[in-house]
Amino acid sequence: MERPLSTSFATRFRTLAALFLGLVLVAAACGSDGDTETADGEVDADKPTIGFVVNPWTASALNVEVARAIIESELGYPTEVVNIDENEAMFTGLADGTADAVLEIWPSGITESEQAFFDDGTVENLGELGAVGRIGWFVPSYVIDENPALATWEGYNDPAVAAEFATPETGDNGRFLGTDPSYSTFDEQIIANLGLPFEVFYSGSEAATVAELDARVAAEEPVLMYWWTPTAAVSKYDLVKVELPAYNDTCGESMAAGDGGVDCDYPEDVIIKAVSGQLADKAPDVYSFLQKFTITNEDQLSMLPAVEIDGEDPEDVAAKWVADNGDTWSAWLD
Questions:
Q1: 3-state SS assignment for residue 270
Q2: Which domains occur in the chain, in start order?
């Protein structure tokens, strides 16, 4: 779900551009032919184009579309979506000016090598977005209703229980449903280090995970999965977070170092924004705007169902939010 930095640990990780949903979101932002389109509004062709990284999850796309709409209509800058397909490449792109901003970094996914970009100033932590995310293991509530032991990780250590989650590709082991393999996830390590009889299967994208979840819930079949909040799916499918061993500093150090020692839950992520170290000189008014740009959990949850459940275009949903919240975003332009 890079989700952020200068927080107590090192980021929802992840961040880049898309395999499946990401491609859909980039297409939505850039146009069906893959060429960049600007949002509606007056733009000045003499001003530099502001490039945004869209991570391959819905909230990231909505954040960016809100920012693009206001920057174009109120500040007159053309904008574009920059297609970057791996986590560290996002930081490299920000550092060299290929991209200007990413609006949703989850700190638990930031690695030591990515932190180095913040440390040397080529990428700047622009502060908190306003939303707080939580990654973890989730199951539909009926799974726990049928077996209360599955509210915590210990319940999954029973081979008989694992067999209930098994599929042909996992044999006797249960299947753990992962999402986009480009995300900074630690589920394989957690499973191995806790000795659980499960194997991770990556769906490939947020959309593919939701499609499988929809089918499993309709059939009331057990499914254990990587997921996060805020998302519309949590309420739609009545997902419950499974209790893992509590996050601690030692485990967090393993997450940052990538040493394979992760055996705890994901931390709560206070989501941050990041920009190129060159943006303040390139477009000082955009830099100031993004410093003040704030999207809360409530803002995201007011938009997410329209995209994730109703299938609306992120650009259209963001435009409606902008039209309805002028008193909020006008303060970001002061």
A1: strand
A2: 21-133+269-333 (3.40.190.10), 134-257 (3.40.190.100)
